[in-house]
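Key idea: predict the complex, not the pieces.
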Amino acid sequence: DSGVTQTPKHLITATGQRVTLRCSPRSGDLSVYWYQQSLDQGLQFLIHYYNGEERAKGNILERFSAQQFPDLHSELNLSSLELGDSALYFCASSVKSRGGELFFGEGSRLTVL
Amino acid sequence: GEDVEQSLFLSVREGDSSVINCTYTDSSSTYLYWYKQEPGAGLQLLTYIFSNMDMKQDQRLTVLLNKKDKHLSLRIADTQTGDSAIYFCAESIDSSASKIIFGSGTRLSIRP
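Result:
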């Protein structure tokens, strides 16, 4: 158990819908990273927050947004869903603002039908 | 650019050594990582190396870093069936923003 909690574990929804994925980092970790893992794209970096502030953005679509709340949990919002958004979404936390060891959650599997 | 490349598959015989290779592009990387992903699970950190090191050994794992060629390798000695997994190389890019970029992963399979 990494100490990182992601909910929901599985989610099935239809195209055009909106979903929210939630991540609770390890106790004491201030950084939250989001990644998308799909079969043909590998593990893609989406976004990084540190202590409530956005620190880095990767290949995150405009339809996607994220935030980190004062209690340090983070949410990834995916809207106007398309079939290609079906993937495993991982959250990882770290105590550092840059680098350091990432602790991964077990992921949220999103299926868009 | 920011890119990490790995070969997709590696098959080794049980008891042999496995060597998984990775190349990266960002010369400002400070941390270089190896993560392991077992089926249905998240990624687990195996080991990492600072960019000012050449080698790091941890039990059966040896990491070699060639900064000049931007090449990282992971050697697993005496490979066991429990080592079957996907292995991801990753680099921490600190020059302009705090990103950690992963390769596509190398699927290691073990032959009896």
